[in-house]
Amino acid sequence: MSLPLVPLLAVASVLLGGWACWRRRESTDPTTTESPRNPASLRTDGGEERPDDGHPPDDRQVSEERRTDGGERRADSGSEGRVPVIGTLYGREHKTSKPYGLMRWVTSVDHKDIGILYLLFGLAAGMWGATDAMMIRTELFTPGTDVWNAETYNGLFTTHGLTMLFFFVTPVFTGLANYFLPLLIDADDMAFPRINAIAFWLLPPSLVLVRAGLLTEVLAKVIDAVGPRIEFLYALEPPTMGWTLYTPLTTQLANPQVDLLLLGLHLSGLATIMGGVNIIVTIFTERGQGVSWSTLDILTWSLLTTSGLILFAFPVLGSAVLMLLFDRNFGTTFFAVEAGGPILWQHLFWFFGHPEVYILVLPAFGLTSQILPKFSGRKLFGFKFIVYSTLAIGVLSFGVWAHHMFATGMDPRLRASFMVVTLAIAVPSAVKTFNWMATLWNGNVRLEAPMQFLVGGIGLFVVGGVTGIFLASVPVDIVVHGTYYVVAHFHFIVVGIIAFSMFAASYYWYPLFTGRMYNKRLGTAHAVLSIVGVNVTFMPLFLIGLMGLPRRSASYPVEFTLLQQIATVGAFVLALSVGIWLFNMVNSFRTGPVVRTPDPWNLKESNQFSREWQWFERRMSENLSNPDRALADGGRVDDGPDASGGDADAATGDAEN
């Protein structure tokens, strides 16, 4: 019934490809672009100016000419008393001449561009997944299924989990890695720029495949409103088997959307593996001369360990997903009930699934260790121990998967071994926590918005980590397994330190991204509401779980109503905090105070002016050293060695004076 969808997608792909080729030819038309053969026409950021004779343009023509990438020169910005905005989102760097606007973002292989694309994609997917969460909490406000039906509720928690894990957290951290890793190790770009671009562009179709049921349903209803009913668009229904895809339910569901979901997960896994390989090769082969293994920063160590986990974990998921596809469509029996297949699926899934938890949390640990000292006025306490603990987590994470399966009736001796390893992996996490506390001790702590989120995230992580130790104990886990206790434990980590580290990074690097400063009062309001929201939302779930209420049910006994309503109110507080953050980011980008110093956080005072800020300082000095030649997007014209002469020197001297 869903077969006509294939030719429809093929036709759409052909039309989209034709449009892209046409735009590409138009953008490379010799009447609108210029070959960068004349070195005198190159700017320091890689773009080109357009003088006809190769000589530097007269100052009177600066405001009248345009660059080939579409930017405009700013005429005598210094004389107007204005400081050009220097930030990546304003002054974009080009290694080669390329189209400007939409086609530039579609065809770019620059690590900063791709990093921004990852961040925007992760933000969009996160908002979608958060909408699922709000719909879930809305249904749970009352004991009965009053708002959505049970099938819709099942679809919501399925897509919520898959979207947030695969399309929100992982892309956001990959985006930060793409953007900052080359800056931190003094590299020109990622090792494989084209593979880097391919890895990103595999993600949007992956998300469409995973969530196609909702998209086709919305499209069908729009078409119904203006034209004839198209039946095959209703064939795909939102998946309802849960994000863990347990068999035999997943095998037996007739919904063709399940097949597309499995293909989407496989495709996203390939994209993640490409990104992981790129990060590893970049760290090993692209480090600058002054960057050795002993001087590597803590965030880079965390990204390296995370990428190693990706290489070992995601192929297992890809293999298991293909086996499940074969069982559904080709009559194989990998997960047949008669052969004990459902347990095999759990082993394969959780062999991927628990390292995936650390794939998500290790970059958050790295961000916390990277940013926390900057606002403590001290160097990171026990740097080597944090590096060793990161590597230890990476190794031990592959020996704890079966603690998700204590309730399946496995051999008690096997359960005991997994319990010991699960308890052991808490040790390196505790090492990090105590080292963060020691970094704060007697430090010059500045409670800026990044620091507020880091301190709040550490506190929430302690709650999530301690409750995880209880779940590692076989007797406790058997009692609370499958209850809201597990939901609360997991979300104190995912919404706590993981999301909080993202918010901290967004505030910390906001001046570098945009050249402007955010509204600090809104940043503080965001932090306070977020900390309150997480506690109000998920703390009641611990109590509900200890009282024995199973999770993943749209209805519940009436005696749990009050605690569920408190949790729902907390979820809306969290939603309000995210709204404040979005408003702050967008409005500050438009009207925020312009950053006039490359050290907005006074990092030089504590000798922690790290490499990405040193890059920002070099870029700002290059762009502002000659205000008469400044460009509208923050770039600077390089007239070449033969054309510079005394005017440039005089302009530089004036700027210094």
UniProtKB/TrEMBL annotation:
Gene3D superfamilies in the cross-refs: Cytochrome c oxidase-like, subunit I domain (1.20.210.10)
Q: Which residues form the Cytochrome oxidase subunit I profile domain?
A: 99-602
TM helices/strands, residue ranges: 114-131, 165-185, 197-220, 260-284, 304-326, 357-373, 385-406, 418-441, 453-472, 484-510, 522-546, 566-586
Sample GO molecular function, one term? heme binding
Q: What GO terms fall under cellular component here?
A: membrane
Low complexity bias: start-end ranges: 642-657
- What processes in GO biological process is this protein linked to? aerobic respiration; electron transport coupled proton transport; respiratory electron transport chain
Q: Where is this region: Disordered?
A: 26-83, 625-657
Q: Where in the cell is it found?
A: Membrane
One Pfam family assigned to this protein is COX1
- Topology within the bilayer: Multi-pass membrane protein
**Biased-composition ranges for Polar residues?**
29-38
Matching entries from PROSITE patterns are given as: COX1, COX1_CUB
UniProt-listed CDD domains: Heme_Cu_Oxidase_I
Compositional bias per record (Basic and acidic residues), positions renumbered to this chain: 45-79
Keywords attached to this Swiss-Prot or TrEMBL record, sorted alphabetically, are: Electron transport, Heme, Iron, Membrane, Metal-binding, Respiratory chain, Transmembrane, Transmembrane helix, Transport
Family statement? Belongs to the heme-copper respiratory oxidase family.
The entry's protein name is: Heme/copper-type cytochrome/quinol oxidase, subunit 1
Naturally occurring in which organism (per UniProt): Halogeometricum pallidum JCM 14848
